[in-house]
Amino acid sequence: MTKKAISVFTAFLFMLTLCSFISSYPSNEKKQESRTERKIVYNKKKHIITLSWSAFGSSGNYIITRGGSRLASDFVSAGSTSKLEFTDNKPNADKYENYYKITRGSEFIIISLENQIFGDNMYFYDRKYEKAETARKEINSQFESIGLGGANGEWTTKRQAYYFKANVKGQTYDSGGSGSASGAEANSIELGFYSHIGGLGKVPSDVKLGSIFTRPHLSGGANATCTFWRSVENVEVMRDFAWTVSQSTSARRLLIDSTSKYISDVGNTNFWGSGGFIADTHYTSSRPNWGGQQQWYTRNTVFPSGSGAMGGSYNMVWQGCVNPPQADNVNSPVLTTSIIREKPFLFIDNDGEYKVFVPAWQKDRVGVSWSSKDMGKGQVQDLLTKWYVAKEGDTDVEINNALKAGKNIFFTPGHYALNAPIQVNRKDAILLGAGIASVTLEPTEKNIWGCIYADDKDGVIVAGLLMDSFNSTTYQIRIGNEGANADHAADPILLADITCRVGGVQSKNIQIQASMQINGNNVVGDHFWLWRADHGSQKGGDARWQRDRCKNGLIVTGNDVTLYALFTEHYQEYEVLWLGERGRTYFFQNEPPYDAPNQAGWSSQGGRVDGYAAFKVANTVKEHHTIGMGSYAVFTGTDGNVNKKNGFEAPNSPNVKLEKMCITRFAGPGNIQNVINGTGGSTTNGTKRVADYNNGEGAQPYDEVFILPNRESYPAYINMEK
Which Gene3D superfamilies does the annotation name (predicted)? Predict the structure, then answer.
């Protein structure tokens, strides 16, 4: 990323003391939920609800009131008791529309089925019982405490998701406003770090929001290059959608009725960002403009008529879109999305139960997967019977036992500390995270093998998870065992909205061989950010080079692997190393490591070539295709004499084709000296592009033997068998 250096040492000291909840209840009452046991049991046959809790407060009866939602405008009396149990014989008809506030003296707790199922980091809103502005005010109050940069945002372990129930009787969640979402008069929802907005309807129009804004915190609000880790899906935005973001930000399955001139509108023409990803979205009234974004990947999105450019500086890829911009140096429209399965999502079905919709595979798709009244093709799974709902504090033992029992895993927002990898070893298993849920290798001496290992099985889905590392490991995530050779063409493997992060927060030295390795065949990746952190709470420069060690962001050995929206940055050797056949990548963004200390310590191919290519197709590969590739020099933590010879390297072969490549320099003295294979020119003289390299005239790289992770690199005491 092109990022301003930011001091976050103080942030790290205080990140565990961040505010976790802003109550909308009167300030003279003290909430006790964090240390009070709560339980709720629904008897479907009798339609009664029984509550129980541990003692709190000093004296007097417990007063029970009931509302239809957590922030309902009206709570009515349900009774009182001196006991630690109460049965409501006349609850609201929908079991999920019963929120009980139990008060004793100045203290109170809230009990509900939704809280019991999903935990404290998922916030549910119901317009049937709440005012239009209620959700916006609560979300924005959380943004003020955890959404900004520094101590209150980028390195916190707090995660949260905001879920909206379907509107009823023409109501919306829009409290009114006007103008760009970045302006105060717009009354926008402001979404901060590690936050997710989700609609619980079947189609986006079931949940109508006003406007959404993601506020940058650098350079006085003009720099969004560190506006990471947030997502939105399955809602309609009625007024303005100013998605001012960079990497690891996912916007999916949206209906956008209106948008300001710039999708990244912060009221400042000097704005710049390093995003981003939008998919399966329909803009109905106006064509947005990405303004000062360096790059962006847009998939299966419908725009109003027109073909003019919509902003962007270097690399804009539009795949399977209706009315995309015309092709030029910056814009790369791709007619169809060859194979895709949309990311699964949570919703409430007609029977009032929570379900997960798992979209079907589609080939050669153009436009969105849904219509105004149809969810699209796919499978509906009951959450409570088919899934294990994981909550922060759950262990790898509990999660792996649930997988073995045939359950899929829904990770509620949280920071999951692992002492062993999550092992996906059955067909069609799904891991689905909400609220940028993170699975983390904790700093224990024996935990050195990885976050997630998915075996060579049909139909596996891993989506919406951040893999973090506080300890050394072989991989962060591995798909398919070494030597995997099964054919998954009939039921491919899907990886969607995956982030791997190396470094940034831990003070101890760590060493990781590869953030991700894809050994399996027929894998589809839909939006990755693989990031060896270029900034964090610890010292940078030479200290970071030694402390945060990771050779490769991605290694692909499987065949027929297709990747959409691949962001890979700052790794210490080949950032993407591709060894499988018939690979396809649509959009790639990269910055080399800022912190290579000198040229002698950062050279490839036996020391004969300066630096490492960002995207390396091995000489053994016979067939490969990429479109839309950007690598940007930022050599700031060096001795002033570090360069990279090639942005990209590939064999000179008739069936290996790399299209629309771009290199430039953002900062620092060093340069990328060629676009590909010694051709295309150097960033010394500005931005350089190569439109098409296919069996070209450049010098083929030297043959190499690559040292890959293997079973021998696992610790001896770990049994990875079934």
Answer: Single-stranded right-handed beta-helix, Pectin lyase-like
DSSP one-letter code for 326: P
The encoded tokens of residue 348 equal 């409430």
At residue 565, what are phi and psi to the nearest 5 degrees? 60, 75
| Cα Rg of the chain (Å, integer) | 25
Name the residue ranges covered by the structural domains of the chain. 38-116, 122-336, 385-693
Would you say residue 444 has pLDDT above 90? no
- 628 vs 567: CA distance, rounded Å: 12
The pLDDT of residue 269? 59
Q: What is the DSSP string of 655-717?
A: TEEEEEEEEEEEESS--EEEEETTBS--GGGS-EEEEEEES-SSPPPPP-------GGGS-TT
- Where does residue 631 rank: exposed (0-12), middle (13-18), buried (19+ CB within 10 A)? buried
Strand partners, 624: 583, 656
Give the integer Cα–Cα distance in Å for 356 and 362: 19
Q: Which phi and psi angles does 149 have, rounded to 5°? A: -80, -175
Quote the pLDDT of residue 652.
97
Torsion on CA atoms 79, 82, 83, 87, rounded to nearest 10: -10
Residue percentage of the chain with pLDDT more than 70: 91
Paired sense of beta strands 122-125 and 160-164, if any: parallel
Task: Name the pairing type of β-strands 408-411 and 85-88.
Answer: unpaired
Among 453, 536, 452, 522, smallest CA distance to 494 is for 522
Digit-coded pLDDT (tens) for 16-28? 232 323 334 444 5
Check if 38-116 and 122-336 are the same fold.
no
Q: Does CATH place domain 38-116 in 1.20.120?
A: no
Say if CB 143 and CB 156 are below 8 A apart.
no
Q: Are 554 and 594 in contact (CB under 8 A)?
A: no
pTM: 0.93
Least confident of 268-272, 303-307, 326-330: 268-272
**pLDDT tens-digit map of 594-632:** 999 999 999 999 999 999 999 999 999 999 999 999 999
- Spell out the residues 6+ positions from residue 94 whose beta carbon is closer than 8 angstroms to its own: 352
Q: How far apart are CA 184 and CA 263, in angstroms?
A: 17
Which residues are annotated as catalytic?
Answer: 591
Rounded Cα distance between 18 and 193, Å, is 13
- Integer Cα distance of 210 and 189 in angstroms: 8
Distance CA 137, CA 125 (A): 12
Q: pLDDT tens for residues 380-418?
A: 999 999 999 999 999 999 999 999 999 999 999 999 998
Task: Give 218's pLDDT tier (boundaries 50, 70, 90).
Answer: confident
Among 41, 80, 632, 689, residue whose Cα is nearest residue 332: 689
* Whether the predicted pLDDT of 718 surpasses 80: no
Name the CATH topology of 122-336: Pectate Lyase C-like (2.160.20)
The pLDDT tens digits for 175-193 are 999 998 988 999 999 999 9
Q: What is the pLDDT of residues 111-139, one digit of tens each?
A: 999 999 999 999 999 999 999 999 999 99
State how far the Cα of 246 lies from the Cα of 476, in Å rounded to an integer.
22
What gap in Å lies between CA 464 and CA 252, rounded to an integer?
12
Residue ranges of the alpha helices (H) in 236-367?
none
Number of continuous H segments (helices) and E segments (strands) in the chain: 6, 50
* CATH class entry, domain 385-693: mainly beta
Question: How far is Cα 709 from Cα 711, in angstroms, rounded to an integer?
Answer: 7
Percent of the chain with pLDDT over 90: 78
Q: Is residue 193 within 8 Å of 154, Cβ to Cβ?
A: yes
